[in-house]
Amino acid sequence: ELIESIFRMRKSAKDEKKKGVIDPGEPTEKELENGPIDNRGCTDIIFCLCFVAFIAIMCYVAQQAYDKGDPFRLMAPYASDASQCGYGPNKNLPYLWMPNLFCGNNNSIFTSSKCVTACPASLDSQWSTAGIGYSQLYCQFDSTVYFDRYCFPNVSAAVLMFKSNATDKVGQYLFDIYTAWRVLCIAAGLAVILTMVFMVILRCFARLLTWLTIIAFIVLLALIGYFFYNKYQNTADESDALNYKILSIIFFVSDAVFVLAILCMYDDIQLALTIVEAAAIFIFKTIFVVLTPLWGMLFTIGFIIYWIPTAIFIYSIGIFSYDGTPVPSVAWDKTTQNYWYFHLFSLFWCLAFFLAWVQFVVAATATQWYFTSSSDAGGSGSVSKSAYWSIRYHLGSLAFGSFILAVVMFIRVIFEYMKEKLEEGPGKNKLTQCLLAIASCCLACIGQCVLFMTKNAYIQIAIRSVCFCCAAKYAFQLFLRNTDRFSLVSIFAVVFIFIGELAIGIGVAFISYLIMVNWDPLNKQLYSYICPTIACFIIGYVLGSLFLSVYDMSISSILQCFLVDEEIAHKNGLSQGKNRPAILEPYFEGIRAAPEPGQDEKKQLTLMRYNLSLIHISEPTRPLYISYAVFCLKKKKQ
Length: 638
Prior knowledge:
By secondary structure, this protein is mainly α. Helices cover 68% and strands 3% of the residues.
């Protein structure tokens, strides 16, 4: 009976814990009270070795491609008579002369091209000696060699064609981009400046702008509902009046539900906005973290510079044939196909790995800043230390997470290729198209889920120094315990970043337009301001997205740091700790430590043993079970 009573007390304690207000959540390590763990160990070593082996295989495939491939044969064009320039009968005719489509009697470069000995360098000389024996059908132009094989108009001839002989305005628009290249460089600098200005605005006015937008939306719903209600009052037709009445009820009810939702989530909204402001403070305190995506972009560009020539060499391993275009067609064997698929997958894995590295460095820097901040100190985060962690300890975890993302990307690409082939085939129907669209949508959703999972797992790796699977588990459990907070922060982050990207793009385009209009003599050289302005908008939008990706990752990292810090405070009662930014300290006021699991039961059990001992000591001669019976009777009377 004593054992049963103990079990009943434990069960009641667990039930009270489930019903209680304070939920400490997943137990956190003692070391996390001081921030990210410094005593780190290598994680996912096996996958690190797999990644190294993958790089070795990638080098082997590249070596085989460079030995067996013939890119010069691949670059050797085919003329319209199905003969390849520089090979066979055309051994002494290595260049493909392309006709000028803007004059003459031709209408396609694919049906009027010809292999020649050399590209005519001027309008008068070398024209007849180049091998073009029927020049009366074509207008002459000054040409030069491109890609070591093709005879295209040179720069001066291109200018003449674009400015004088073009049948439409495409040439003039494209040449305007070339003329305004200095403005495009200025636009890149403007994008950086406007990104910083936008984050200053978020730091100072994010809360005000958000609440003004919410109030405006509430008023808008009420006005629309009143509009339809007024229509209902003034409409004689009963059918139209009923429709207006239903619409007014829908908008009024939606407005009321929205207001109630805002009132219920007021604290969470305030927290989300505070985290957005804290992320802006972090970026300004650790300004060098903004350069992290530039390093990732340099790594990506360097890898693509390697990947494209290797892909050309792999593509050139096979049998060449003519398919109606100057570019030859190549038939592959099974080994070449495997090489190509492996090389394609290497593109996805390496690009995903560079993305993972950038995300981890930003997350680790943000976590260091969070747990070194206080009301007295502004916090510090070391980008170099985060980069060292990523290479020294967590290379395998980053490779593991990027591998999962690469697999999803690879499957999506293969599926989209097969989908296109099926849609072009004769057996397509509406059902097949519908199923393919559903499958494509599902793969896209899976890709977004994997991207979300890996992103939050890297943050947990930065905080806890655990393997990728454990980090993904911790991140998922943290998400389940704080779904509303994650959702609100994600919504605000997406909205603010989208507005920032558009604002930066539009701002860069507007300022660049003013520069072009007032830059003499540039304004006289341009045919139109449309194309250079659009190019400036694209530059501003892309660079703005690149820098704001740091802001997005910072918001997610600070959110998880706050949630981990909050759970530690609930567990240990650290309501006035110094390891958090001052802007977030008000959210920790009044937090009390939760009792340790089983603490109350232990106290009650100790008290029971003490009382039972007193009863037995008073009459030591009687059996123990008699003393226990007396104890139970006294307890029942109480």
